[in-house]
Structure formats: C-alpha cells, structure tokens
Specification:
With about 230 residues, the chain is of the alpha/beta class. About 50% of the residues lie in helices and about 15% in strands. Helix 4 runs parallel beside helix 6.
Length: about 230
C-alpha cells in the first residue's frame, strides 16, 4: 500500500481555471503546503503569487504553457517558459502541437518541445498529449517524440474542452512506450482515491488533480483503518 507521504509527492495540486482568483490561489498553495504535494500547478498569471507563497518550501511551482490548445508557435511557448522561469516556476506542463502531430509534421512537434526544454534550462518539462484527440498510433508517436526531444514526462490531458481525461488504457500505453526513461503524468477527471490508485497501478508516477485534498483524506482514512 502506498503511504500518505508517498502519495502526496505524486500529486500536482492544480487550479488552472481562467476565473481563479488570488484567494483561490492562496487556498491552493496553503493546501499544497499542508500536505506537501509535489507541486502547485497554476497559469502563468499566477506564477508570481504562487512562488511567493511557496518559496520557503519543498513544493514546486508548476506552470501550464501553450494552454489549453497547444496552438502557439514554438518561439511563443519558449517565451512563456522563460518568463515563467524568471518569476519562479520550477516545472513546466506544455501542451503539444496536436494539429502538427496529426498532420504528420513531426519536425514541428519536435521543435515545439525542444524549444520549451531549452528555455526551461534543466527544469522539469511535462508534455501534454491530449490523448482524447489522438489515435493509438499517434499516442505512441507523441510519446517517442517527447522522449527524443528531451522532455521529462508525458502527460495525458489538459482536462479542458469537455474532452475525456486520463484513462487506464492510455496511461498503460504511455508507460509501455517510454519505459522507465520518462515520467508519466495522469490528469483529467481524477477526483478520488480509487481512480488515483488505478492510474498509479497503470504506470503513472505523477497525478494532476484539483481535488488533491479529498484524495489525501480518503487515503488517510484508509491508512487509519488498516492500522487499527
């Protein structure tokens, strides 16, 4: 059984809503500190505040880039990264150029990721594939391009646009494709402990969710019962 502490270090506690207020971000960071989550994941607008609130902790500041559609040019995404890093971001969740992949423009997709990796200057880069829009073959190809481009993780979904989020099948495929060389982040629709464990068992080693506190409380109760 995974411990409460181990689980916390697998969670990116997330609020990337367009209407997130400063109070929402303060709450997100307070919860991230309380549970010692891996990161607090926010939009570029909220990086400065998030960094200020987390600067004396081990919780990383994660920022989404090219979000949520991935249609920005490689140079635009790279600039987003450089600005976010200068303001305190330590992890980058970028949306891949999905249309480029589906058009067979592998060099564009590779450049898109490589420019972000270079701009991140050694910081963790996770590539969001938006698996709901891809075929089996495209998912495999996206994982391989991300690996060759120097990214650290592949990630299932943005959780936006009404698309289906992470599935056990997709996480299993992504882990099989990248092996142990990269991280796999499951995100989108993960709201309870049962789903979280299913994703971890399928091969995910990072979970993106806006309900991290609820998941942790479920795990604390389960751990208490087992110890009683």
């Amino acid at each position: 059984m995974i411990s409460v502490e181990e689980l916390a270090q697998m969670i990116d506690h997330t609020n990337v809503k367009g209407n997130a207020t400063e109070e929402d971000i303060k709450k997100l960071c307070s919860e991230a500190l309380e549970y010692n989550f891996a990161s607090a994941c926010v939009t570029p607008t909220n990086v400065v505040l998030t960094h200020k609130l987390l600067r004396n902790s081990d919780v990383n500041v994660c920022v989404v880039v090219g979000f949520p559609l991935g249609v920005q040019t490689p140079k635009t995404k790279a600039f987003e990264v450089m600005e976010a890093v200068s303001k305190g971001a330590s992890e980058i969740d970028m949306v891949m150029n999905i249309g480029g992949l589906k058009s067979g423009r592998e060099e564009l997709v590779r450049s898109d990721i490589q420019d972000v990796v270079e701009a991140a200057s050694g910081r963790t880069v996770k590539v969001i594939l938006e698996t709901a829009l891809l075929t089996y073959e495209e998912k495999v190809k996206a994982c391989l391009i991300a690996e060759k481009s120097g990214a650290d993780f592949v990630k299932t979904s943005t959780g936006f646009g009404g698309l289906s989020g992470a599935t056990v099948e997709d996480v299993t495929l992504m882990r099989k494709t990248v092996g142990s060389k990269m991280g796999v982040k499951a995100a989108g629709g993960i709201r309870d402990m049962e789903t979280t464990l299913a994703m971890i068992n399928a091969g995910a080693n990072r979970i993106g969710t806006s309900t991290g506190v609820q998941i942790m409380k479920e795990q604390e109760i389960e751990e208490y019962i087992l110890r009683s």
